[in-house]
Specification:
The longest helix is centred in the last third of the chain and has 56 residues. By secondary structure, this protein is mostly helical. Helices cover about 85% and strands about 0% of the residues. It comes from Mycena albidolilacea. Belongs to the BCAP29/BCAP31 family. It is a multi-pass membrane protein.
Length: about 210
Amino acid sequence: MTIYYSLTFMLLAAEMVTFCVLVFPLPHNVRKKIFGFLSESPIIAKIAYGLKISFIFVAILFADALQRMFRVTAEAELAKQNGTPHAGGAQAENSFAARKFYSQRNTYLTGFTLFLSLVLTRTFSLILDLIHTQEEYAKLKGTSPGGSKGSKPSVDSSKEVAELKAKVAELSKKERDFETLKKQAAQQAAEFDRLATKYNEATGANSSKRD
């Protein structure tokens, strides 16, 4: 194995170890510190930048290995169609089989390295989002992310609760005032009907006496 494919294999092994560490079940506080360090450290940012450049070279190696694998496969298919064995006998066949094996190995090696890099990036971002979501949920509930209740709810939450209670009380008061106005309007309408009836009776009696 050449030096650049050996480095690619080491990079793949490092990615596998990193993935196991990311998905390993850790306490929330420990995971928060680890991911906070990884996302905020300038040293880690420089290392990540260097890895991005190395993945560009791995992508070039992947394209080259894929091209070699297709060429060796095409040669094998052509030899089968023509029915001509490889010149040189068993030694040539062994050489051809070795070329085919190496081309496939290099393709799988570089391909899995690139694929696992995408998986690691997505997993890291998802875990960061999960940590932030847990922190926000803990603030809203007034509990720590580990599950234990905090000493006091946050000041902002207390203010929001107080404002909501004040609004509810104000709405209840307005509703009671509205019901009172409805009752008063109904009473006044009934009184007006009673007075109008008496007035009509009185005016009707006076007109009949005049007649």
